[in-house]
Amino acid sequence: METWSQVSAVQPLASKMMTNSIAKDRISHAYLLQGERGTGKGAIALLLAKSVFCQELNGIEPCQECRACTRIASGNHPDVHWMKPDGQSIRKEQIQHLQKEFTYSGLESDRKFYVIESAETLTQNAANRILKFLEEPGRQTTAVLLTENSQAVLSTIRSRCQMIDLKPLHPEAFQNQLVEHGINRQTAVLLSAITNNLDEAMSMSEDDWFAQARRRMVQLIEIIMNEKDDLFLFLHHEWLPHFKERTQQELGLDLLILAFKDVVYVHAGRDDLIVFSNDDKKLENLVMFFSQEKLLDILNRLLDAKRKLKQNVNPTLVMEQLAVHIQE
After folding, report:
1. Rounded distance, CA 86 to CA 298, Å?
2. pTM of the entire structure?
3. Are 233 and 239 in contact (CB under 8 A)?
4. Domain map (residue ranges) of the chain
5. Where does residue 206 fall: left (phi above 0), alpha (psi -120 to 50 degrees), or beta otherwise?
6. CATH for the stretch 4-165
7. Which residues are registered as beta bridge partners of 58?
8. Any transmembrane segments, and where (predicted)?
9. Which of these, 121, 170, 242, 288, has the minimum number of CB atoms within 10 Å of its CB?
């Protein structure tokens, strides 16, 4: 999404709120964008930064061609700072560095703009430092915090930001978009259940790592069914070495959640909701293996495991605890 009109097509409420602020020159000192992965949080933050710094703004639309727009797009604008988690979290030292940068006057304008990805991963010390930043906003400073879970962000931070909720994209429309880009329908259904981001979905469809991740998910479920004694061995020798980064670990859990949901749908006679292809019919054997009650318990355990990962609990411990609960 490179224009506000494109944002409006998928996130009309967010687009209206942002463009009204731009048109009236009343951009807030801080925004908190909440939405699932792929709903456009990063694209909206990038577009807002361009709207703030664009030298040839056309109404509310940045020109995309001036020096400011091109430098922001390439991540090289000296007054636009983009912060991502360092490993599992955003640390105090990162915020200290950001604060130091803000002591300098703007190099190309009198404004400063910063974006914090995965704001829910701020450590307590980092969150307190950001809170101080928000309590004493610079006159020409704009902060944009991005999160998939605003409830995991300090309430005192939330209260100092303008909250904007991004809605999940319509899955069928996204599936059609993927099919238009050459992805088969069943794979498009799976990818649309994982992400609403076209670039991310296209990358996954071509990524051998993702194909291997899917295979390991199927293997893990087979071991749960048939070889429980090998479960911990599989976790340590196959699962954990493959899912190394936090985003990969969360994706692994997402694949398991989708697989177990499929089995629940089969139990309920809702084959129309199944995500995985017929090539994975072995998953349907779980219908006979687990009761609906046990399946729902497993789904709750998987969701709890995702929450723990976001809280920076050691991923090995998370998966070992999950395995113990599934074996009960």
Report:
1. 31
2. 0.66
3. no
4. 4-165, 207-327
5. alpha
6. 3.40.50.300
7. 61
8. none
9. 288
